[in-house]
Structure formats: structure tokens, C-alpha cells
């Protein structure tokens, strides 16, 4: 058995000792306050980034590109991972969590800008599952690529598209008839690249229920004014 997994098992014993009594109130059911949709990136620690150590508090979803969209026989739909807590556990808030340096956004950007000179070959070399995920992401980023300010290097362009992607995912949720109309939808970016002000690991609010203006958001949400920041108000 590979040592990294053995290490995980050993760490799990510590977790079990700490959390044993914390499951008393949630053994039979769950009623999480919020569902988060994060990128499945090893640098984005979903529960840890919120300081969450309470079972039943946060319903966590993850995929490459923090997408809320899945493709069905009937067309595109809100991912069942996101809809489940909204439909069955009384959850009334969704948080879409993008992050700086997102590999999925970078891959989509390269596709759209031909920075990968062998795009077709690169796609052919990817497993079908990864290509499928990028096929869902790329069309949503294409208008954003066209609007990017001139003169950005690749890293800066990607980090602005991270925000743009969060905006598109928030918009999809808000426009869907499957999502209850009173659901609160917030878009944030988790920064570990010093792209925003503040410390690495801070979450920056970029979108609340479709509103993207930093000035407006700070007026409407003074309790989190210092956490509202955007790289790009497109």
C-alpha cells in the first residue's frame, strides 16, 4: 500500500478522536446552511478555508473549474450536486468559489487564444472526461476573453477570467428555474497568489446575487465591506 495513503489513515485517527462527539446531532439527517461549489484543486481546502469544523454546516461540491452546470439529454442543467441540498435539506445559500491560478480556466484560455499551438492534439491527448469538463467551461469564458484589457500577461488574464467564470456560474444559477427564487447566491475568489490585497488564503467577495459593482456591493453590504474586491469590473 502506498505510503501517502497510510499517512492519510493515520491522520484520520486523529480526526476521529477529535470529531467523535460532533456527529451526535447529524447522524440521521443534515440541514447545511450553505452549499459551496469549489474547484477540485489540492490547494483549495474547502472546509479549512472557512475554518469549518462542524459536521452538517457546509455542503461541499467540487469539480474542475467550480462549475454549476452539467449536460443532460435535455440540455444543460444545474448540477445535481448543487441542487440536492437546495431541494432536500433546506439549504438557502450557494457560494461559488473560484481561485487564482485555476488550471481549468487556464486551459480554457489557452484554447480560446491559441496559445496552445496544437490545441486539437492536446484535446485528443486528454481523457474524455477532462475534455467534457472543458467543453462546458470554454464557451462561457469566450466572451470574457474578447473583453480582456490589452497588455495583460497570461497569469493576469487568467485571474481576471477566474472572476468572469464565477460571474457566469452565478448567473446560471440565478437564471435557472430549478433554483428556488429566494436562494442567495454569492461568488468569491480564493487567493493564494497575491493577486488581491490581504493575505494568501483570504476569500474575496466578487459577486452577490448578480451584482458585480464593488462600490455598490460595499454600500449594500457594509458588514463585509473590507472583503469585497475585484480585479476586473467588466
UniProtKB/TrEMBL annotation:
SUPFAM superfamilies assigned to the protein according to its UniProt record, in alphabetical order: beta-carbonic anhydrase, cab (SSF53056)
Co-factor(s): Zn(2+)
InterPro entries: Carbonic_anhydrase (IPR001765), Carbonic_anhydrase_sf (IPR036874)
Signal sequence, start to end: none
Keywords: Lyase, Metal-binding, Zinc
Top-level taxon of the source organism: Archaea
Gene Ontology MF term list: carbonate dehydratase activity; zinc ion binding
EC number, as in UniProt: 4.2.1.1
Catalytic reaction annotation: hydrogencarbonate + H(+) = CO2 + H2O
Residues bound to Zn(2+): 39, 99, 102
Cofactor note: Binds 1 zinc ion per subunit.
EC class (word): lyase
Family classification: Belongs to the beta-class carbonic anhydrase family.
Protein name, per record: carbonic anhydrase
Species, as recorded: Candidatus Halobonum tyrrellensis G22
Amino acid at each position: 500500500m502506498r505510503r501517502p495513503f497510510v499517512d492519510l489513515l493515520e491522520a484520520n485517527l486523529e480526526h476521529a478522536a477529535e470529531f467523535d462527539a460532533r456527529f451526535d446531532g447529524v447522524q440521521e439527517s443534515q440541514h447545511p446552511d450553505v452549499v459551496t461549489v469549489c474547484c477540485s484543486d489540492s490547494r483549495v481546502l474547502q472546509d479549512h478555508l472557512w475554518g469549518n469544523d462542524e459536521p452538517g454546516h457546509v455542503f461541499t461540491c467540487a469539480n474542475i473549474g467550480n462549475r454549476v452546470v452539467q449536460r443532460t439529454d435535455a440540455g444543460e442543467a444545474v448540477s445535481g450536486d448543487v441542487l440536492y441540498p437546495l431541494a432536500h435539506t433546506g439549504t438557502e445559500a450557494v457560494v461559488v468559489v473560484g481561485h487564482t491560478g485555476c488550471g481549468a480556466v487556464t486551459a480554457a484560455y489557452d484554447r480560446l487564444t491559441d496559445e496552445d499551438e496544437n490545441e486539437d492534439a492536446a484535446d485528443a491527448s486528454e481523457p474524455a472526461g477532462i475534455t467534457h469538463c472543458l467543453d462546458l467551461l470554454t464557451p462561457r469564458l469566450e466572451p470574457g476573453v474578447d473583453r480582456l484589457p490589452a497588455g495583460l500577461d497570461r497569469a493576469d488574464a487568467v485571474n481576471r477570467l477566474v472572476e468572469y467564470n464565477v460571474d457566469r456560474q452565478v448567473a446560471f444559477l440565478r437564471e435557472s428555474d430549478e433554483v428556488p427564487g429566494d436562494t442567495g447566491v454569492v461568488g468569491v475568489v480564493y487567493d493564494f497568489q497575491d493577486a488581491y490585497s490581504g493575505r494568501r488564503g483570504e476569500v474575496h467577495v466578487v459577486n452577490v446575487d448578480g451584482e458585480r459593482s464593488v462600490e455598490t456591493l460595499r454600500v449594500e453590504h457594509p458588514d463585509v465591506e473590507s472583503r469585497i474586491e475585484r480585479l476586473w469590473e467588466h
